[in-house]
User: Fold this.
Amino acid sequence: MYIAHKTGDEREQPLKAHLSAVAESCRTVGLGIGLPITFYLVGLLHDMGKYSREFQDYIRKALPALRGTVNHSAAGGRWVEQCNPMTGVDGLLSELMVAAICGHHSGLPDCLDLNGDLPLRNRLTPRKPPDWDEVFARFFSDCLEKGEWDRLFAQARGEWQLHKKVLVDIAKKAGASANALYAFLLGMTQRFLESALVDADRYDAYLFEAGLSPSPEVDVAPLWEQMADNLEKQMQDFAQMPDRNAIEIARGEIADACLAFAQRVPGIYQLYVPTGGGKTLSSVRYALACARRWKMRRIFYIAPYKSILTQNAGVLDKTLKAGDALLEHHGDAVVPEGEEGGEDDGRARHQLLTERWNAPMILTSAVQFLNTLFSGKSASVRRFHQLAGSVILLDEVQSIPIKCLHLLNGALDYLAGVCGCSVVLCTATQPNLDDREIPLLLGPNTQMVEGVEEIFEKFRRVDVIDETRQEHTADTFAQRLEQQLEEADSILAVVNTKAAAQALYEALCRRREEGEERSDYLLSNWLCSQHRQDKLDVLCEQLSANEGPGLHQKIICVSTQLIEAGVDISFDCVFRSLAGLDSIAQAAGRCNRHGKGGRGKVFIVKYGAERLGPLPDIRRAQEACIPILEQVARKIARGEADGGTYLAPATIHAYYREYYTRQGGQLNYPVSAKKSDCLLDVELFDLLSANRAGEEVWKDRREGEGITVPAHHAYHTAGRLFEAIEDRGGIDVLVPYGKGKELIDWFANCPDIRQLPAKLREAQRYLVHISDYEKNLLTEKQALEYRPEAGVWTLDERFYDSELGLQKEPGELSLLNF
Assistant:
């Protein structure tokens, strides 16, 4: 018997059993995109090399010194290449299969790299090759008859031709960019196959080593019905509330429209409603109805910020009563205990679910979603195929990094057009993604709610006033806030940087007269998340008290952009430092949120204390916003518009057109020569499609020689370079706020190493991220200490202020701690 795996207690897994199990799992996944036989064959061939004498000796004798030295992934690729060479258009199927087989452990290789080499071909010739003919003979003797291979491969060729036609038909809709989109879609199919193989291989190995049987496939139909029933009860409660105002009635109409829209076939749709329009529950109402109507496998809710995720996870868990069917996957997710009561049981289950994404409903971050689409890390690749046949709710889609825009458009086109997904773009500031070089392929009548302009007018709760002709210092800005406080009880001021927020807050504190009854708040990322939440709780209590009779507390809250998303809060008046119009709209959503009384006021101002050199995206957004503000101002002067026009859908549309025009090549994910480790600047969209950059290097170095693979994708290079959020370095520091003080003491002594994982999770809410420059500065002042046993940096309590958070000087402005 040939074996695939061997455990420490001498249990052996037959190689044929492993290959058959992986092949069947891959076949099931391949059915979703019309390639079941192709996926099945890749599953059968992926470990063909384990039939070699060298591998069987290694696995039976369990020689640790040989670990990683016996190649077993090349054999299956060599067999495919021998049967159908990777040349010309007919070789595309072979290249797809070879890349998946050869990359199932070390990751997808580049077909053509930026040095003019062919790494995929090189994978077929390991340094210590086995006797290939013997390996092939053993495989066909033990696992599959040669005639059956011939029959199955012929079927694979047929289904591949049909699959290519699907890709071509999708790409044609992109017009002038059809060739680039077609090449990108081919790459998505490659990633889908790799994902299915990696997951099937690892899961089968895990089951054998753990002595477990596969978990039965969850029947999601009754889950969708149960969750939908629970949500409908909530909707009925809303509808029966007494004395509903116009906005609350409009929210109900939007939710009803989303429910009805689920009868439409899956596709890419837009939920375009104003802030405060109830888009979270409305979109989930659509998702559940769509999942029931079209038998979808999963529902994904994706948000750009953890603050939105944690808030909406609580709402959905309470409303849907989903229990274990709902999985949160982000850094601050709480890991539940296992059914046996042991924390390790719960952690193991949670880890397996996040590795595989096979829960019915998954709430995750935009970073995790983008990594699943484009990162080269095997954990990310492994999850990709689980997106097929799902409803995908992309909340605040305008927050996706601009560099990822064309990559995202192409991936969503693939998920909807090939994988049968229904994608919903949810936002109050819908970007023009269908009007790009690589377009998002929206169909006709994609608005889930009709009459967008009328809906925005119904939800109009503010007037916007442009005051950008004057540039403020911190002192003059504080003076302007105080002046406005004579008309309003509560004011929110949102600025673009932490330093600018602190400068404004300090100016307010300096100007405040002794005994003045006013509450000032500062919210920024200098505060750990628990500190921010505690401040928000107190702030919300004061704002709520102001809604009742009696004396009202005067309140000024200064914040960075963190308050613009995932925070359900309402002020009488909002000031927004100049930014993109989408950010201004988000800030405006925190003004008169529930439409009580007359219209609130939102002022756009220029704040000179901001230093935006390291923040080019905000700077470019400002530059795009200025001409739009000027256009609206001219219309207002002519009597053709008013303060509501600034946030109208037509104005938002004009802003995005201006913004994208100014971005140039930023939409293709540019990477400089220095960062790409080669001699030229590249774009990730190109590396994942035609790879013109690699072709140019090939031509320069191998003049007249043709490239001997049909597709030229640089999978490994692109996956290595991709970062959903650019890593600017820095570290997370545990700060002495609240329970953070106890945790710092615990890490200083680390009395029980078994508690370390739980303590590290607990510490997440008491971390503040600092740059490398700030780390060096604080290190010089002996404010930081590194705990190597736990891998944790801690902050001296003298450098954490109860109002300002982390500071660069000890005890700075301690007089403000009242």
